[in-house]
Amino acid sequence: MAAGDKKTSDGGSSAWSRLLSDLPRLRLARRSEKAPGAPEPDRESGGYERMRSAIEDDFDEELEMQLEEDRLDELADEQIGRDPSKRLNRKVYFDELFRLQRELVRMHDWIAYKKLKVLAIFEGRDSAGKGGAIKRITARLNPRVCRVVALPAPSEREKGQWYFQRYVPHLPSPGELVLFDRSWYNRAGVERVMGFASPEDVEEFFRSVPEFERMLVRSGIILLKYWFSITDEEQEFRFHMRIVDPLKQWKLSPMDMQSRVHWEDYTKAKEEMLQRTHSPETPWWVVRAVDKKRARLNMISHLLTQIPYEDVPKQDVTLPPRIHHSDYVRHPVPPDLYVPEKW
């Protein structure tokens, strides 16, 4: 069975874990029955409803993001003629996303436990959905184990360094999963197309990068490279949405505008990049990303299959009782220190 399809073993499958796993179905379908196998907490004390409410709140961020995306999907159906019936069912999407996110938690526990070094590179055209996929991967993971690297344009000092030098400090240490939101492949893409790198620089990159990546693999790094692929029409629509949506305008840069002008140049650069830097040791994986929801599910599912993992042995956790001292007095907080409660 593929890692992305693993069922949680008995060791990591407490009754409350099953309640948590079943919550998206309960919330989206508005069902009132308890999850199968869940214990019967003391409902009269209010503990059951309080715990259920806390678990629901944990999912709200994803639900809030998705409400905005649903609106954009409807606009896309109208603007570029997509068939609404082919959209992934919203309930199916959340069921699968939350299932995969549980598996990501298990996988990142295993990475930390076994001191693995995992590096996943996210590349693709502007607005291809790399950031959205990264958000869904990191949403429930420990930031001390899983971190994102998104470097700005190189400084004058960095421009004079060995090209790969500024990326090396961000490589994973034992027990880390690192996600590069763009990477050294900038040289084969934007730097090449926009003239920031000379033809000689680009050719040297193509000569160097296969051996550089083989060095990473020999050092024990698990290297995964993903290319998010979208169509010309889809990118144009997403850029239009960034122009008109105040919440997304910060995503739009002058370089984005130029990427529209140079669509064909980027296509040629991408095709050569994939052809010259794909190898058995460090293969490229192309994600069809016109449908963001399917792209995220497919990419995360694939990631889980690339790192064999198991449940990590864990000790039972018991909350210790609070110590009470007879002379302890909690002093009131001055009213003017509180944030005004408008809601």
Structure write-up:
This protein is α/β, with parallel strands linked by helices. The protein is 47% helix and 9% strand. It has helices at residues 15-29, 47-79, 90-114, 130-138, 156-159, 190-193, 199-218, 232-244, 254-261, 263-277, 292-305, and strands spanning 117-124, 146-149, 176-181, 221-229, 284-288. The protein has a 5-stranded parallel β-sheet, sandwiched between helices. Helix 1 packs antiparallel against helix 3, helix 3 runs parallel beside helix 11 (292-305) and helix 4 packs across helix 11 (292-305).
Protein topology:
Layout: H1 15-29, H2 47-79, H3 90-114, E1 117-124, H4 130-138, E2 146-149, H5 156-159, E3 176-181, H6 190-193, H7 199-218, E4 221-229, H8 232-244, H9 254-261, H10 263-277, E5 284-288, H11 292-305
Parallel strand pairs: 1-3, 1-4, 2-3, 4-5
Helix pairs in contact: 1-3, 3-11, 4-11
Alpha carbon gap, first and last residue: 48 Å
Beta-strand residue percentage: 5-15%
Radius of gyration: 24 Å
Number of helices: 11
CATH superfamily of the largest domain: P-loop containing nucleotide triphosphate hydrolases
H/E element order: HHHEHEHEHHEHHHEH
Low-confidence stretches: 6-20, 22-38
The level-1 CATH class of the largest domain: Alpha Beta
The best one-word shape is globular
Got a strand count? Answer: 5
CATH topology of the largest domain: Rossmann fold
State the CATH architecture of the largest domain. Answer: 3-Layer(aba) Sandwich
**Sequence of strands across the biggest β-sheet:** 2-3-1-4-5
Average pLDDT number: 85
Helix content: 40-55%
Q: Main β-sheet, in a few words?
A: 5 strands, parallel
Q: Which secondary-structure class do the elements indicate?
A: alpha/beta
Q: How many domains would you count in the coordinates?
A: 2
